[in-house]
Amino acid sequence: MAYTRGDSKNIIVGAAAMFVSTAADFDPTTTVMPDFVEDEKYTTTLTDSAAGQALVRNIGYTTNGLELQFQPDFGEVQVDQLLDVAKLYKQGMQVNLATAFAEATLENLLIAIAAPSTSYNAAATLDNPLDAGSLSAAKTLEITSGAIGECPVERGIVAVGPGTGDCAADAYIERIYVAYRALSIDNVTVSAKRDEASMFEVSFRLLPANSGSYGKIVDRTVNTVS
Q1: Nearest of 112, 115, 90, 113 to residue 99 by alpha carbon
Q2: Residues spanned by the domain of 158
Q3: Which of 32, 62, 81, 124 shows its CA 20 to 30 Å from the CA of 213?
């Protein structure tokens, strides 16, 4: 076999479509995600199927793509006869997923600040300050301090982006990222600026399920893009 420098088909360029679970009791061990449909992108399956619509919601535009960070923590064993460590052992693991929500909707802010679904009301009825005595329909997000003993809100995340492979229409490979337990942990800024779009930068800490798995990454071939 002749030597080759590499294969440009294995270079991945492009953003991913992100979906978050809508169910408050999302459980990766029992929740059944929509099955793959032959010759159909998984973004289409998640958007069009009844199962996908019931489980996840597309968060829309993102900025700066998606970053999945693996941070292992190793302990050291030192011995007298060596100036360096003699052995490393794994003593911890941390996985983070970072992105920025470019659509500044209240639904996305709910995800970004890890608020419970009950804090958001898509059809609230409020007093209209411009017309005393009348009521007005509005979307509201209640910002609360929480309470002692309150459980943090964990949500499932599914992202679908380009995988390795060429750009031929009959040989498309998509890469699917699935995170079972994602918890927003960093500060979130809500801004209104003259020369800058309002975005929610989010960093999710991924936690392992009972099986010890954080999730999975799947490279799937779609023979006919639909």
Answers
A1: 112
A2: 15-73+91-119+152-222
A3: 62
